[in-house]
């Protein structure tokens, strides 16, 4: 493989490397992602092995609650009842599915999580 790139992401096929690569590419940099495996996803496979259930092709239409239980409603009519929900989506998507959420409220109350990414110049 040959080429000239602005940035290389080594060991980058997991969520952190993919996210960093996408952000840098959106910023106009040419990025090469180097992954030792023949597929992307990194520790996503570990999630399956440790008991995380992954539901593919599920589009959330609404989150509602009744006391301590949250109801996640999907566009296809399916529903989950779960006590704790973590919305790992951008502000527009989060405001679409969370009751009474607004972009202004998100800007003032959201506490973004930052994953450290090591860079060398």
Can I get a quick summary?
The protein has 121 residues and is an alpha+beta fold. Helix content is 26%, strand content 21%.
Which key features would you list for this structure?
two-stranded parallel sheet, extended, alpha+beta, 121 residues, 4 helices, single chain, 3-stranded antiparallel β-sheet
Question: Can you lay out the helices and strands and say which pair or pack?
Answer:
Layout (H helix, E strand, L loop, with lengths): L6 E4 L4 H12 L4 E4 L9 H6 L10 E7 L2 E6 L4 E4 L8 H7 L5 H7 L12
Tell me about this structure:
The protein is α+β, with helices and mostly antiparallel strands. The protein has two domains: 1-54, no CATH class; 55-110, no CATH class. Helices cover 26% and strands 21% of the residues. Helix 1 links the parallel strand 1 and strand 2. The longest helix is centred in the N-terminal third of the chain and has 12 residues, at 15-26. It starts with 6 loop residues before the first strand and ends in a 12-residue tail after the last helix. This is NAD(P)-binding protein. It comes from Paenibacillus mendelii. InterPro entries: FAD/NAD-bd_sf (IPR036188).
Tell how many strands the DSSP assignment holds. 5
Reading side by side through the largest sheet, how are the strands ordered? 3-4-5
Binned, the helix content reads: 25-40%
Subunit arrangement of the protein: single chain
Backbone CA Rg:
18 Å
Instruction: Note the total helix count.
Output: 4
Strand content: 15-25%
Largest sheet: 3 strands, antiparallel
Unreliable sequence segments? none
- What is the residue-averaged pLDDT? 77
The ordered string of helix (H) and strand (E) elements is EHEHEEEHH
**Which word captures the global form?**
extended
How far do the termini sit from each other? Answer: 22 Å
């Amino acid at each position: 493989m040959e080429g000239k790139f602005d940035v290389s992401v080594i060991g980058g096929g997991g969520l952190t490397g993919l996210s960093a690569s996408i952000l840098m590419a959106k910023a106009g940099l040419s990025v090469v992602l180097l992954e030792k495996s023949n597929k992307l996803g990194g520790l996503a496979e570990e999630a399956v092995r440790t008991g995380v259930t992954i539901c593919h092709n599920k589009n959330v239409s609404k989150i509602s609650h009744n006391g301590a239980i949250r109801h996640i409603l999907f566009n296809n009519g399916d529903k989950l009842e779960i006590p704790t929900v973590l919305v790992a989506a951008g502000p527009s998507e989060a405001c679409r599915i969370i009751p009474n959420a607004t972009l202004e409220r998100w800007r003032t109350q959201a506490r973004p999580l930052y994953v450290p990414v090591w860079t060398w110049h």
